[in-house]
Amino acid sequence: MADESLLSDDLLRQLMATGHVDILVGLPTLNNAATVVDVVRSAQRGIAKYFPRARALIFNADSGSDDGTPALVRDATTDDTGTVSASRPLRTTNRITTPYHGLPGKGSAMRMIFAVADLLSADAVVTLDPNVTSVTPDWIPALAGPVRDGHADLVAPRYPRTAADGPLVTQLVRPLVRAAYGWTLSEPLMGEFGCSRAFATHCLELPALGSGGSDGVDLWMAAEALAKGFRPGQAALGPRLLGPSQRRLALPDVFQQVMDAVCACLELHDSYWLPRGAAAPVPCFGTLNGAAEPGARPDVTAMAGAFARDVAALHPVLETILTEQTLAGVTAAAATPAPLVYDDDLWAHTVFEFLLAYHRAVMTREHVTQTLLPLYLGRTAAFLMQHAKSDPATVDAAFESLCLAFERAKPSAAALWKKT
Amino acid sequence: MTAGDPLWFKDAVIYQLHVKTFFDSDGDGVGDFRGLTSKLDYLEALGVNTLWLLPTFPSPFRDDGYDIADYYSIHPMYGTMEDFQAFLAAAHERRLRVVTELVLNHTSDKHPWFMEARSARDNPRRDWYVWSDTDDKYRGVRIIFLDTETSNWAWDPVSKQYYWHRFFSHQPDLNYDNPAVREEMWQVMKFWAELGVDGFRIDAVPYLVEREGTTCEGMPETHEVIKFLRARLDQCFPGRMLLAEANQVPELVRPYFGDGDEFHMAFHFPLMTRMFMAIRLEDRGPLTDIIRRTPTLPENCQWAVFLRNHDELTLEMVTPEEREFMYDEYARDPVARLNLGIRRRLAPLLDGDRRRVELMNGLLMSLPGSPIVYYGDEIGMGDNVYLGDRNGVRTPMQWSGGWNGGFSTADPERLAFAMISNPVYGYQAVNVLAQERSGHTLLNWMRRLIRVRQSTRVFSRGSLMLLDPPNQRVLAYVRAFEKEQVLVVNNLSGTVQAVELDLSPLAGAIPVEMFGQSLFPRIGTQPYLLTLGPHAFYWFRLRRL
User: Is the predicted ipTM greater than 0.85, yes or no?
Assistant: First the structure.
């Protein structure tokens, strides 16, 4: 249940005035002045257009922005909601902006959003990333609709992806979560999502939501939903474009956060995922429209170089983590940079063997995940080289092929996990 | 009766009734003026001070009397002119003013004027109506009765021309470009004013004059007609009142008040629709929006506000989304829908929920304007949507649980409209006699409500200041007139609500609840916390002692 110590008296007064809501749109912010106004407007328009009868609240939990983000959220208006002829909500769309207490980071913000959803008995909660510039009003019904219609407790996003777009998701998290948890969830690192009040209330008990971090929190919620029997769904959204002002973490930090979350979730949920078989389909609501944005292409040569260099340097460490066969494959791949080949099965076994090492704590767990990073760079570079000129359908087929490789690798890994 | 305050209509609480279905004195199944006269004590006890009667002119009754065949008489089934004059005198004895209908826009096609006009193209009355060789003129003008009419022109096979009609095809529009028509309608008005009628409710005002290339609504020439009639009325009968039916948004109704030289009053249609919308949405937005959009009136003018009347609950002035919402919430059964509206009475619209009925009446009596109570709504009467057109909300008044609900001694089959007889709203369950026997019935509650409203002029004449508490489910405002102030707080939702009101400008005042005279804590500079039960409302007289 909601931890009411989260809520200041002033916030409580605002919630008292708001009362029960049908839809709560949560915005966890930190210095998003450059992009947040358009996100709020999209949310307003989405509510007006698709849920004109709904009691709605746009709730902004701010982590101490110093660029005026809360004021922008408070004052953002749409110029088409005041006329009689245009779509406008029949009910007042409430808006609350509040700072939150606790550790800074998305986890704490999400906890506050969920606490408010719980307290106001929100029927559906939609969380948007305030740094995304491609949010449209259509995202609101896409994420909230399946929840309101009783088809899902958690609606994760689906975006069109190019080969180079979001490799941490496509090369690692998606196939791993799919194979382990047994669900075809495309975007376990949910930048935005919809969920039911029951799920929001459940998440209040998650320790991860009291921590900082960003990407790890999203994964925690996705994994928790799958493991605890909440009905998953996916919403086909358009491309996901990030604003220019995002203070992004360096790849090693993001990688560390995500791997920590993945490993911790697998530890916590092993009674669920170990016996799971082939992945069940997660229903997707809507059709993916719009081409993926190619974005900046990574420097694959540098990635491949780092891979070759680090595999050689870390060979003694890799010997304690990987099986002989896998290590041989990795070593061979690193030694043959042109063309670099790191195939799906080898990568799947690599990842699972790292997970086992993490589980067995053969060394400090942080060290395990750090050691995986250069291999991830190598695998990603190999994939990007292979698909530099592939059309979207070929890329999608390659993503699917990788997922199947992970599913094939899972049983042996699961058997070893159980023995440990 | 007509002497005294010329602004009497500002303090009016109006009771709208249909003579036809109010009380039948002679057992022919149709209400009449003698019957109505015998019920004036009831109306006086209710606390209303003005009666508005639906048309009682001779008529073929193809539009329930709004199709007039003779403007200088009353239909024999309602009695004689002597009966009418006796009623008028008895009403005035009780200080009840009487407002009658006057349909200026059109007549029945059975009116002798039209019969003459159509008889030959060169008939002197020909130009009293609007004729055309084709049905192309005024193309694009909207059709009002969408469910029954396909054109605003109808072919006259006698004179072989089309005639213009904005309503039913059997109601040809009069031609107000003809000065003889204006003069004749003044003579009609004068006739009834001389008998002592206190005011006229003018039907279908915007449509008097047509002009090519326009909507044919609210033409400048229409305002000239109104000014002409108003000037004559003021000159000959000072203190008489004109009430406009112009089913439009308040910005467009405002011109009908002119500079205080056209109508004294006009209905505020959107306010009515928004009240129903707000209580179902449990959100004050629709109401505060329309209140803010309502223009200020000349000092000698007043809005007429109402919850229900003899017509459908109009949904003409809402967005498509709002209309769909209203249909879903109030007329799920398509039979209840008529034209762009809903043909239902107050109680069934509100699912018979006493709390919501009380709240809606509380809003009606506390918002700016002179309130109108539609007959039978004070006891929570039901309707019969299967009677066709709008007749389902014009069924006989339910006076008792006996024969024909005490309305008539005629055989039930002979009644003008069948009684409501279902177990929930039927006359056996809902009637005046039963409700007079207990202090807590809707009827007695309505009597108290009207009495409290009439205990001050703050509601009838006062200004309104909307408050803006964070809780959108609560609608709060301060009415003020001279030295009096009343704080009104309404919970639009069906659940208990807490609300903090910024009453700091009223600091020092002591709120006294007006129904029970209970004292509340003195207002300070801090937010004033109130809790309200489901659909509860409070009226606080603010005292400074």
Answer: no
